[in-house]
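Homework-ish question, so no full write-ups if that breaks the rules, but can someone show me the predicted structure for this set?
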Amino acid sequence: MDMNEIKEIFFQECEEQLAELESGLLRLNDGDRDPETVNAVFRAVHSIKGGAGAFGLDDLVSFAHVFETTLDCVRSNKLAPSQDVLKVMLKSADVLADLTNVARDGGSFDQARSTQLIRELEALAKGEAPPAAPAGEPAAPKAAAAKSAPVAAAAPAEPAANEHGFMPVAFSFDDFGGDDVEAVSELPAYEIAFKPKSDLYTKGNEATLLLRDLSRLGEMSIHCNMDSLPPLDQMEPETAYFSWKISLKTDKGEDAVRQVFEFAEWDCDLDVIAVDAGESVDDAESDQAMQPVPFDLSALDDEPDAPLGVIEEEEQAAAAQERDATVAAAQMASNVVQMAGNAARAGAGDKAAAAAAQNTAQQAAAAPTIRVDLDRVDRLINLVGELVINQAMLSQSVIENDSNGVSSINMGLEELQQLTREIQDSVMAIRAQPVKPVFQRMARTVREIADITGKSVRLVTEGENTEVDKTVIDKLAEPLTHMIRNAVDHGLETPEKRLAAGKSAEGTVKLTAKHRSGRIVIELSDDGAGINREKVRQKAIDNDLIAADANLSDEEIDNMIFHAGFSTADKVSDLSGRGVGMDVVKRSIQALGGRINISSKPGHGSVFTMSLPLTLAVLDGMVVTVAGQTLVVPLTAIVETLQPDAAAIHSFGATQRLISIRNSFCPLVDVGRILNFRATQANPVEGVALLVESEGGGQRALMVDAIQGQRQVVIKSLEANYTHVPGIAAATILGDGRVALILDVDAVVSASRGQSLHLEASLAAAG
Amino acid sequence: MKKKVLTVDDSRTIRNMLLVTLNNAGFETIQAEDGIEGLEVLEDANPDVIVTDINMPRLDGFGFIEGVRRNEKFRAIPILVLTTESDAEKKNRARQAGATGWIVKPFDPTKLIDAIERVTA
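A: Not a homework solution, just the prediction itself:
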């Protein structure tokens, strides 16, 4: 793994943290006061800052730092998360997302907005936080803040020396100034008095290691003061008895010396005094207490992190009453070795129990997840697709060779078919993801548009955990953003108009997702003014989309907004209704194999309903024959199939025909003619009619020559090789190895409305 | 023998950076995602030194350090706190919980390895 891969992981993580941040803030906004929510929000920003720092993303770090500081005020209850505060925070979350995107993809961000929010965040932090809070200077680069803080922390509280039950030893440099230091070197010299407290050891620091580090700075001599060491039977194993006096010559400076003791400074008495090089006193009379002890660094390496403090009671008692300090020290060393042995034995004994505990702990943990590269999943899905085709081909050839269908091969094949289907479903489930991230992004869009338009908007989401294929999710964000923008900008009225209409000033936009008959249905509704049908109709007439005297149902008028002719933004912005680029939205949804339609109630708002396939990899299809060609019609589009009766067919104009089904008329569409498979319309009585539901909600009867059967097919995109083919959604490979085209039902239905498929195609290309 | 480092951090980014840095420096690295997992793997991991974050879900760094120090076997193990918190108060709390030392994020690999070398023999 290299840094670039880690960076990629960082950005993935950022996305998750940003989602966490936003959902947390929204929960707070809804009145959630769980401290864990605040903590999660704080952690999200904190995590982003941490990672960003590691990659030198300074803009991100400095913004995250200010944000974090303010969040910390909330976390420590210095700042109440009021609606106003959360508004700033939600905006900050948006900016943080922008900065993350800029850091990943390059480009620029709204410097003014970021600066403005930094000011607002600082004001929030300052307003409630103590004046010493770092909020005053967060605009300064993070590195500066990080540097200054440890210095501030370096003022240790001086604990009472007696609290650990030993007598402090006064180190006077007058008493033993550099006794055996030879002052030949010209390097600056330091006299260091170092007396660890017991706490130094309990925190895992080790005097010997500190001395080793010190010795690396330069030329050093060490005296160990063992005066305080009591007889072994009176020795408290966890008390620090030794102190050291060190003479050090180094050119690294006093800071470097103190740096060695950085981790230990609270837990020891430390004096560092610079001695003038020439001033070294030749002190012949050595202090009795200060026996020079040979300091062998290699010995340290042989006995790593010996826990000096941990000696067992009985071993102490058994020890002889040796007064001689050197012997006591030797004894102690042997005890340490023995103790280490004990620890090892204890470790072995507990191992089984520990392993058992480990297992239980793992079982108790939440359902584990793993991250898998999407490519691998796709590869698997492709292979399963091949497997399905292969299985179908195998079945077919067995059926052809085993017409009575009783052999064991046949039964085995049936089981194989079932297994294949299950494998396929399981593999598809791997790609399924909740729509939550997309819905969360919409919250931001709503906030931004509400800000720009000066409207007050509440976004309600439902069914966020509804799962759908990842490809669908990825492609859903753009059309959905477009629609949300429209809903707030054009759908909702201004607060004044709303109040005048007897509604609450705050508009509501509702986004829901649910599963319905093998598809995901996403609904976007608003409680705005609804579509102004008069204006839409007029515009359609003006643009020659419909005849002036055309008799259109309300539903048909509403659905005019999806027409390409409505996409010229400047004209449509005059409309109180919708229209900005809705044709683009519709095309995106259709490209996903989905349908979209609108229903509107004047004065009460509009509802957009999108229905999308759960996966783009397979579909249940009806295999039909049209003019000698095999086509697949998506099963979800088909309402029913029927054999037309000559009496039910009514001609209408030169080419149009209607079929009467249970006393209602439905346009009859010859698929073969629409796709130009044949020059003239086939006789409806000789074929089969498939009653399909179009995206406008209306029904059409598609006429095909015959139905072959119904099966699940693996979708193979044509677009990579042939670009978009009007009327054809994709292709598949059938059991006999032949390629069959999958019919784009909506395109065929639209074409039957009088627009040719090629016109649609040219519009699609223009859009 | 390779020295074993147990790292505890909820950020995947930081975990990966630690892994790469420590492996490159010749350490054996065991990783946990939060304090609870850190304590769970402690016995089996049997590390020579621990590097932990402070802000983590479920069990934060303070709680984790206290948990390690309560364990007879590991109460003297060096623990380094790896955190962006650079202010005195948090460092002090970590110290009181029993941290041996700290590394301020963003860490650079040399500093991290230095700090580990400083607290291990």
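Now go work out the reasoning yourself. Hint: Chain A touches chain B through 61 residues (CB under 8 Å).
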